[in-house]
Amino acid sequence: MKVLILSVADKRHMSMVAPYEDYLISNNIYYDIIRVNRYDTKDITKQKMKNGVIFEYPFYQSTSVHKLRKIFRFINFRNFAKKLIYKNNYDFIIVWNENTAVLFADVLLHSYKNKYCVNVRDAFEIKMLNGLFEKVINNAYFSTTPSPVKEKNEPYITLFNRDTRILEHVEKKKSLKSRNDVLRITFMGLYNAAPKTFQTIVEIFANDNRFELHFYGDEFETKLQEYVDSRGITNVITGGSFPYEKTYEYLSNTDILNSYYNNFSINQNLRNVSGVKQSYTPMLYLPAINDDNTTWAKICKTYGFSYLVNDENLSSLPNDLYNWYHDLNFEVFKKGCDEFNKLVEDSRKQIFELLGKIK
At what angle do helices 330-355 and 276-284 cross, to 10 degrees? Predict the structure, then answer.
């Protein structure tokens, strides 16, 4: 059997494909990956793996570029991938994210009905194409979403985010810091996801010697750093875009993971998203900061591994967070993480059972 993992995302944004690769490798199934490369090269590359080949199409451009300007690059990538799909005659396609599903809708619906799965990462936002997207979902062998909250009759299976490769490189926390230690709070992502929120956080924690704030990702090293420098703030460290492997270092050196956005007025879909970063908390016994009143917040309350931030407690966040962290019972905290980790493993087993029925 020949399987294809197809994606308009870059390697750095595909870490959650790991469960599928784990299954394919452990069952000695041949598979290729066709994806874009947004950072490292201007050339088409072909890289051999043990079980197949990775084809990467150059797609470099700033994350702030308007969506309309990306259309031509998407069309070129689509033409490149379609030729490979029909040439290699795959038996099954793992479609990575909702944008890939729509971009290749004609291929999936005409040649691969019930022979593909769609891994939805976020809510699909192009209203004029909603009908096409739903048609692709309805003709899939199965579709997954990382959110356990679904609308009535949605045909999704919950596949919780879990980046298993992290466990090979980052040790789980064995204890919490003492009150004499500076607490490192780390955010990894994109500055333009919530610039006002990041500036607010920096102001609230400004020069508080109990904390050191780290922000890593595209434009933090320029835009947020300029903001920090203009206000004489000394307890903030920024860094730009980074390779996936740098994630290991950043996680190893943090005490609290920051996943607070507070920009629902801009993007309501974030209320139901449980992203990659959230998976690190229970896996690594790593306390976190998250938005309140979200799907993930409900999980955090159930298992007790995050401090939840809202408009009412934002101004007192430094003191409240400091006390919350040091009042944690680490063994109770670990137990909650382990209970959630079991739930995640059960969701993976369900997907593996479905993959095992493919012929």
Answer: 120
What would the pLDDT profile of 33-91 be if each residue is shown by its tens digit? Answer: 999 887 766 677 888 998 899 999 887 666 556 666 667 788 889 999 999 999 999 99
Residues with Cβ < 8 Å from 109, sequence gap 6 or more?
Answer: 135, 136, 139
- Global pTM? 0.77
For β-strands 45-48 and 53-58, DSSP reports them as antiparallel
Contacts of 65 (CB under 8 A, 6+ apart): none
Q: Could you tell me if residue 218 is left (phi over 0), alpha (psi between -120 and 50 degrees) or otherwise beta?
A: beta
pLDDT in tens, 14-38: 877 888 998 999 999 999 999 988 7
Q: Which of 261, 332, 334 is nearest to 293 (CA)?
A: 261
State how far Cα 141 lies from the chain centre: 23
